[in-house]
Specification:
Blueprint (H helix, E strand, L loop, with lengths): L1 E7 L4 H10 L5 E8 L5 H8 L4 E3 L2 H6 L1 H9 L4 E4 L8 H6 L4 E5 L13 H10 L4 E8 L9 E8 L6 H24 L2
Parallel strand pairs: 1-2, 1-4, 2-3, 4-5
Antiparallel strand pairs: 5-6, 6-7
Helix pairs in contact: 1-2, 1-7, 6-7
The protein binds 5-O-phosphono-beta-D-ribofuranosylamine.
The site of 5-O-phosphono-beta-D-ribofuranosylamine has 13 residues, from helix 1 and strand 5.
């Protein structure tokens, strides 16, 4: 059984989707949820599904040791970042080489890097009148959004699409593809 830890900071819709799609699998399971924001939806999803969840402060995360211990204690094989708004430190990257996966709500290398998260991404795509956006699922290394790309999926945008419409097209791609790509990647 391959055990995933999901790290998130927000509502946790991707985390919930991964939890639900892994429930009946015999080869992959979500073993731990880690969140740096008190009261975030992702913690509630963990609780509702009987998955151990830990809230860690940003200073605990900065020191990395507590996180490494926790991952070890829960026998975690892969780390999944699903809306986690903190940089992953070099100790964690080294302890999980090519075993950290992130989802980015745009077609990298466009609209990536520091500050490009959540609505900022969709606002920028809108401002630039892009005809396409999408999702990028990629490995994480020590630099924001620069790890090798595992998969990308594209949504066509209409000239009338507002940032909220772009966001819902991107969300639909996340819901349709992220769990499947994770399972394929960790089982390779
Ligand atoms: C998603 O759009 C994901 O692509 C981005 O952060 C958002 C997380 O949303 N990295 P949720 O917490 O899964 O609802």
């Amino acid at each position: 059984m391959i055990r995933l830890a999901i790290l998130g900071s927000g509502s946790g819709s991707n985390a919930l989707n991964i939890i639900e799609q892994s429930k009946d699998r015999k080869d992959v399971q979500v073993g731990l949820i880690i969140c740096n924001v008190a009261g975030a939806g992702i913690l509630q999803h963990a609780q509702n599904n009987g998955i151990p969840a830990v809230q860690m402060s940003n200073s605990e995360l900065n020191s990395e040791l507590a996180l490494l211990d926790l991952l070890k204690e829960h026998h975690i094989d892969w780390i999944i970042l699903a809306g986690f708004l903190r940089k992953i430190g070099s100790n964690i990257c080294q302890a999980f080489p090519n075993k950290i996966i992130n989802i980015h709500p745009a077609l990298l290398p466009k609209y990536g890097g520091k500050g490009m998260y959540g609505h900022f991404v969709h606002d920028a795509v809108f401002q630039n009148k892009e005809t396409q956006s999408g999702i990028t699922i990629h490995y994480v290394n020590e630099h924001y959004d620069e790890g090798n790309i595992i998969a990308q999926f594209t949504a066509e945008l209409a000239p009338t699409d507002l940032p909220k419409d772009i966001e819902s097209k991107v969300r639909a791609l996340e819901m349709a593809h992220f769990p499947t790509v994770i399972f394929e990647t960790v089982l390779k």
